Amino acid sequence: MGQYVGCVKYILFVFNFCLWLLGCALLSVGIWMKMDDSSEHFVQKYTEKEDEQFQISYSATGGTDVSVTISYLLIAFGVVLIVVTFIGCCGAVRENMCLLIVFAVCLFVLMVALIGVGSWAFVKKRNVEDEFKMNHELKEKTDQNIKNGVSTYYNSQTAKQFMDNVQKELRCCGTEAKKGELFAGYGKRIPHSCDGDTYSPQHYPCNYPYYVRVSQEISKFMKKRYTILSAVSFSFGFSLGLGMALAIILAVLIRRSTRLVVS
What we know:
Elements (H helix, E strand, L loop, with lengths): L1 H34 L28 H31 L2 H37 L2 H16 L5 H14 L36 H56 L1
């Protein structure tokens, strides 16, 4: 019986070290997601300057809370897992049943939590496009960007660069003009980016094409984040399940070996 205990003990010790590395990985991914610059400005930039007036950030769509929550969850799981693996190592080396039981219970709780987070992220990933199809907050922000770009086109180099890039790429012109207003809100002066094949009196204003492009970019960004979170959560949850099984097996073997010695 003693040889089985020793074998499982060292397997659990090595497995705990691997779990410790996984905890460090969770912590690192969480910190990366928190510090990643793209979490501030993730939509394609149409200006060289970091002008918040023409940038769409998470704060404009309600997505900042999601990104920050994900990063904090990973950081919290990483820290807790590092502490729990220390308990497991102590229990395995000392062959302490109490520590092993605490370790197994902690792994079970973490496993259930990770599977829950992974399931939530998987569902959110599949529905993320629908969330931005009718996002009124985002629509208002994109409309405001276009209106500001048109109104300050001839007074601001940043606004001029923004509207020229939008109009050339999306093949649109100006904003939704008011009744009786000519040339898509520009008055009597049409920008060169609206000339020729790009502009016609029946051409679409930039409001809707710009909103669609922004919502698509946001969806791609959020899908990437949810994919990372679900993959990490499910794989780590499976690993914690194996660790829990090893801890229970070791505790049972220690108890049986103790009974044999006593008898």
